[in-house]
Amino acid sequence: MPPLPRYTQQPWTETYSEIIDVRSSSEFAEDHIPGAINLPVLDDEERAQVGTIYKQVCPFTARKIGAALVSKNISQHLTQHFAEKQKDYHPLLYCWRGGQRSNSMALVLTQIGWRVTLLEGGYKTYRAYVRNQLEHLSEKFTYQILCGLTGSGKTHILHQMRQYGAQVLDLEALANHRGSLLGEEWEGKPSPQPSQKYFESLLLQQLQSFNPAETVWLESESNKIGQVYLPPSLWEKMKQASCVEIHLPITQRVQFLLQEYPHLTTHPDILKAKLEKLKSRYGKEKLSEWYQLIDAGKWEFFVQDMLQFHYDPTYSKSMKRDFTKVERSLSIPDLSNTSLDTLLDSLLPNQVTANL
Fold this sequence. Notes:
This protein is 53% helix and 12% strand. The strands form three sheets. The protein has a five-stranded parallel β-sheet with strand order 1-5-4-2-3. The chain is α/β, with parallel strands linked by helices.
């Protein structure tokens, strides 16, 4: 007799061949367990269709139509995704509440003979776990904040620190945004940020990989990165942390930013549209000056003026408000390998020595 599916409310304590989210693609896109794949038993259109019939016609008719659609979709997954799975295949399945959608697929897979685990309570169980963990896990770490004016290469320095074994929490990478007006990530076209919920899922995954006995390095972000917010518990710990401030000459900052943001010089119309958001703060005349520099291709002058007029004052204001515990200030002439080696030797003497 084939085994029955087993249930768990703590799937993170076990290892599975695969984690399968059987919800629709839009539900999956908003948030899911990191590493899960999406095999919908009802797609968005089918789900809407069944829901409409359930409300406007009758529940029984909706269940019949829904069952036919679910059977069709599971059959397709069996002939495609599951076709090459071996006998020892052991998936974890979940849907929204751990109800009919995941149970439907689990029933078929267990009849085949695979060992299937269902997440009891579905995605809602997982989401409650994420909220609880973020509230408490964030407080277990000691944080060190890397500060510096825009263009000081903070993210670049953190990536170098990670190569030497430091624990680095790259919030901008998780948020897919560089944390400023012009910080939207691009890959030929603007790349969307994760939803707030999926950002929190990714953040939790990263925190769970860290050792609480070691320092976690991160840069001086705002509590809002693009359109996503940091959990309050993490934000409070960041504001209480000690800071190391990096100083880089403005000419080097300008060159670094032009290298890091090539898409802005190749899409001047989009750049101007973004700058429109600053009109109420700086006025039409200042905006016109920036537009003239853009039209003339005077990128060094434009970037330097943006730094001195907008970014540097904004940074100084945020530092006085949020990051007051600057315990060290380090100056470097540029972001060359030689300068970075000297800087890292000061920031991470034990790790750098161990890697020599």
